[in-house]
Design brief:
mainly beta; single chain; 4-stranded antiparallel β-sheet; Neuraminidase; globular
């Protein structure tokens, strides 16, 4: 015997509603458990936001108008956070730290190096990243020449330490 099911009416959205929706990606919980960090494209460009767990208040942390800001992680013991960003959509992502004073520092400078965040060490004193450089695609044969992948480990610096390119 086949059981009849009732059809559910599907809600329709206008094109304005469809394109007006926000996409959210990434998340990290702050060291004290009071905030959740994420990226959202509410303005048309991904930026970093946090939302209070206590009252749901959302705060915009970056204000990029050109380059997507994709959050990766809060620092283990303060409100600094790491994020990925490229320049003008070139897809050459760099890892940045946003300090508590608002300063943004590129931890992986270089013209053609694409960086990725992997994870924090178990004790929270270092994190690992990968850098990819030298990507070459031969379109005529659709053959990829594999990039050189370098694994980097950064020590987590104290709040008053400059996290500049001299790491």
């Amino acid at each position: 015997m086949v059981k009849e099911s009732k059809a559910t009416e599907v809600k329709r959205y206008t094109i304005q509603q469809f394109y007006g929706s926000e996409s959210i990606t990434g998340n990290s919980i702050s060291y004290d458990g009071r905030k959740v960090l994420f990226s959202g494209d509410k303005t048309g460009i991904y930026n970093a936001y946090c939302v209070s767990v206590e009252d749901g208040v959302r705060t915009q942390l970056t204000h990029s108008e050109d380059n997507a800001v994709l959050v990766t992680s809060y620092f283990p013991d303060d409100d600094r956070f790491l994020f990925l960003s490229d320049k003008g959509g070139n897809e050459i992502l760099h890892i940045y730290v946003k300090n508590e004073n608002g300063e943004e520092i590129d931890l992986t400078p270089g013209e053609q190096e694409r960086a990725e965040f992997y994870s924090w060490s178990q004790d929270g004193k270092a994190f690992s990243t990968g850098q990819i450089s030298g990507i070459l695609v031969t379109w005529t044969s659709m053959k990829w020449i594999l990039p050189l992948l370098n694994l980097l480990v950064f020590l987590r610096m104290m709040k008053d330490t400059n996290l500049g390119p001299s790491l």
